[in-house]
Every structure is written in C-alpha cells, then in structure tokens.
Here is the input.
Amino acid sequence: MLEVRNLCKNFGGLAVAKNISLSLKKGERRVVLGPNGAGKTTLFNLLAGTLTPTSGSIILGGRNITRAPVEKRARLGLARSYQKNNLFEGLTVRENLGLAATTASGRTASLRCCAHDGAEMQDIIAEVAEQVGLSDSLDKPVSSCPYGNRRQLEVGLALAARPKLLLMDEPTSGVGPNMIDAFDKLIHALPRDLTMLIIEHDFDLGFNVADSITVLNYGEVVFEGSPEATRQSREVKEIYLGDWNHA
Amino acid sequence: MFYQTSIKTVCVAAVTFGLIAYAMLGGYFAREIVIEIALLAMLAIALDFLAGYGGMISLCHGAIYGVGAYIFGATTALSGTDPWLAALAAIAGTALFGWIVGAITANVGGIFFIMATLAFGQMAYVIVFESRALGGDDGLAGVGRFDLSAVGVNLNDSLQFALLCVAGMLLAYMVAATVLRSSFGRTLSGIHANEDRMQALGLSVRTHKANAFAISGAIAGAAGMLAAQHTQYISPEYLVWTLSGEALVVVILGGIGTLAGPVVGAALLVTLEHFIGGYTDRWHMFIGAILIVAVMAGRRGLFGEIEHRLSRRSETKTEAGIHA
Ligand SMILES: Nc1ncnc2c1ncn2[C@@H]1O[C@H](COP(=O)(O)OP(=O)(O)OP(=O)(O)O)[C@@H](O)[C@H]1O
Ligand SMILES: [Mg+2]
Here is the structure.
C-alpha cells in the first residue's frame, strides 16, 4: 500500500528526516512513536505532499508520488488529520463534514446541483458524525464547539474523505480519558482494509490499536516491530528515559 | 456559506421594485440614476461573489467592467457586429480575462493579491489608453444597443433601457446565487474558510479559484457591456481603477459576503451621491464617514447588520429558493 524508501529532508543544515524507510501493507495499522521534535509531523508532511523530500521516494498503491502535488495524493486516497486542529472555521460541523466528504468525492464542479446537500453526502456526514461522536452537534458552528468536539471533528474530516490510507497526527492530543477510550473504540470499529499511520503520544492507546510500531528519533527510524517487541525493547526504553512504564 | 434566506429575497425584491417604480414614475434623470444603481450593483455582485465568498479581494473589477464595455463597444462601433454577438464576446472575453488573472494570482495571498489584481487592471487600462485602433484617449463613439423590437421593446426609450438594466441586475443576482448554492459555490466557500484543508482533501485550488474568477469576471463584463450600450460611447475612463475601489466600497457598505448587500449598497451609495451631492460638493466626505461607521459598527455593512439582527431574533433560517 505504502512504500517509503530512504526518505531524507533537510531544513538548511538540519536533517529532520534521515533515510526513513517503511512499508505498510494494505489494512495495516502502524503507530509512530517518538519524542518531541523527532520528525513525526515532518514525515506526515512529506507523505501528504506539503513538504518535498530532499531525496528518497514514496510509492502509494504502486504509484510513485514523491513529487506529486498534495491534491493528487488526496485523490489517490490519502487523507490526514492534523496535530493542530485545521478546520473550516465559521461554518457548522455539518458544513465542515459536507465539505470534506464532497471535496474528497471530487464532486466540486457542478454549477447547479449541490452535492453537499444531496442524500449521498448527508449519509456520509451522519455516519462520520456517529463514528466520532458528533451526532448531536451537527448544526453547531465549529467556533462554538468545545476543544474536544473540535478534535473529534478534525478526525472526522479525514474520515469523511473515505480514504484508503489515513494519516492521523496525535488524534487524542489534549483530550481527556473518556475521549481516548472512545477513540480506541473508533479505531477498532473502522474497516479492516483501511491502512492507517497514527502518531500517538498515549502509549497504551498506541499499543492497543497498532499492528506494528515505528519509533522515530532525531529523524531516524530507530525501531520497528510488533507492539509486544516495542514494549520490551531496551533501545526504545532508553529514548523515553524509562518514564514509559508509568506513562 | 451562502443560503438564499427570505431576508435576502425580500431585500433584493424591495430594491428591484423600488428601482422599477422610480424609473416609471420619474423622468429621464431618475432613469439615469436607476441605470447607475443597477450597473454598479451588478459589478458589486460580481465582486462580492469573489471577495465575500471566495476571499479574493480583487482590485481589477473596474478594469474587467471596462474590458466588457470595450469588447462590446469596439466590435459594434468599428465593425458593426451584431450586438447580441458582441455581448456574447464581451462576456466570454471578460470570463477569459478573469480566468487568466485568477490562475496567475491563485497562490498569492493577502495584500499581494490585491496589488497583483490592481496591476492587471492597470495593464488593461494602459493597453486601451495607448491603442490607436480603439480610439486611445478619445475613446469610441457609435456603440450599438440590443435590438429588441421583435418583442416590442424599444431600447432607445430611456424607461425601457432602464428596465433592461434592472433586469440585468436581477439576473446577475440570480446567477451568482445559483452558483453559490451549487457544489461549485460551496467549494468556493470552503477555499475561503481553509484553502490548505481543501487542497489536502483533493481539490485543485488553483483551477477552482480561476474558474470562480472567470464567473465573477463574466458578471462584471456583462455590467460593462450594458454600460457601453447606455452611453453608446466608450473611453479609457471605464477602466480606471477607482471604479474597482467604488465597487469595493459598495460591497463593504452593503455587507461583504451577503450577496444581497451589494444591491442595497449600490442603491444607498448612488442615492446618497445624488441627494447629498445636490446640497454640497463634499458628498465624498459624507460617504467616507458613513463607510467608517459601517466598518466600525459590527463590520457587517447595512444589509449584513439587518440580516444579523433579524436572524438572531428568529433563529430559524428559512430557505426560500428564488432560483428554482
Ligand atoms: N519548516 C521547518 N523549518 C525548519 N525546521 C523545522 C520545520 N518544521 C519542523 N522543523 C524542525 O524539525 C524537527 C522535527 O519537527 P516535527 O514537527 O516533525 O516533530 P514531531 O516529531 O512532530 O514533534 P512533536 O511531537 O512535538 O509534534 C524539529 O526540530 C522542528 O523544529
Ligand atoms: Mg508533531
């Protein structure tokens, strides 16, 4: 599904991605761990196309997308949610999800019909709202939603795109334990053929949802393995200075 | 996002009926005012479509209006082209002009976008000004008008021409409203709200912006095309950048991002201009003061303020579709 080979990115003299290689099978759920500044978000930006790599290649579903523009990658089925909420401010939750679902479906050009209000999109909106727990807030302006709801919507926008490959950057950052549980359930309820790459700071959640784990540090992949192997890895333990067991 | 609320329908209908009544009851002078309002409203609708819903604050709409006037005026005056064909050429030509400006400026943000559009407008102005074939500084006389005698309309009659311009305004509003209610328009609002996210969802933002600019350009060009028929004379004055500024003033005065606002704003501005202008030459000062108040007090403009208050009172948005 996704093949990343020897990906490098330098900002001036600073190498923030060093020879990153990873391979995701269709339906695989990979959790990316790593301390602050490890280069996790940068990796997502490279995959999604907001940054172009200095060298290396990215193959999505057999196609080389290393230099493809952002929208092309999205049309190939890549969707992402952001570490910092990146919503359509000033609009309602329903309008937000409608924009995501319709834009991703490519039905943006009609000058007469409104696909956003059509039954098909409204079904997706209702379904995604249900998945992320926003069914009761659909007609609220996002600006009046509490942070937790906004975080749910951030993930909802990516889900509404009906992706094949879903990148989620710290989807649970800043939310309470209830919502982390809800997110755990959400991930488990998603279709098994959806390939996911999730940056997560909550280890329990990460180990719980992952099929496999990649650990980044200083822009490098320092470990890759099953959740069990990661739990036991000395190397990974050292990176997190042992505060891991209480995390 | 645009919704054709009943408040919008009522306001646009009220201005329309007001203009028709004034044209019918008043004399030649009244009809000149009605024409001025209708054409300025069309231009402001075009600008609000782009600026209010697409976030693209263009300062070349005056020039696009002028290009529309010139394509229509030059083809009818110089080669005696059929006015309907000339009108089609004016609309297509201004759509193309808008598309090119939109495509080139799509990645430019904020103040630089405004300056870039201004530069395009100035370029068009200079080209027209320097062109001998187009009459240069002197302009061209002998511009034609539509022939509607087949349906019993005589456009050389000032009342009937004024009514044509009001119809043009209404049509421009309905076209803009229909497009804004469509997938295309919703997508445009999405770009306005969060361009990067739209791109990340798979939208080719540049193409969409260019297409929106083309639609807006066509509406502005249609207004210019009517203006050329009105005066039956074209000169580089039509492309002067201050017209772009005036359109922006109308949009802000009426309420940016409301679509009905430009109609209200145009009626207000032209009325003030003529009535305050009757007492003092300093009417610009009064308009300036009113504009400052409009911007400071809630930043919604006149129609925006009315809509805000009424919709807060009722809290129920009724969607009345005037565009079936
Ligand atoms: N545009 C940029 N220009 C220069 N340096 C950058 C840029 N973006 C990121 N960096 C640097 O790259 C490094 C990796 O940043 P990145 O945001 O990818 O880390 P992260 O793993 O996502 O961290 P966090 O857990 O805090 O989100 C950091 O040192 C950061 O300062
Ligand atoms: Mg990050």
Q: What stands out?
A: The first strand of chain B starts at residue 140 and ends at 141. Chain B has one domain: 6-240. The interface with chain A takes residues 1, 178-179, 181-187, 189-190, 193-194, 196-205, 208, 211, 215 of chain B (CB under 8 Å).
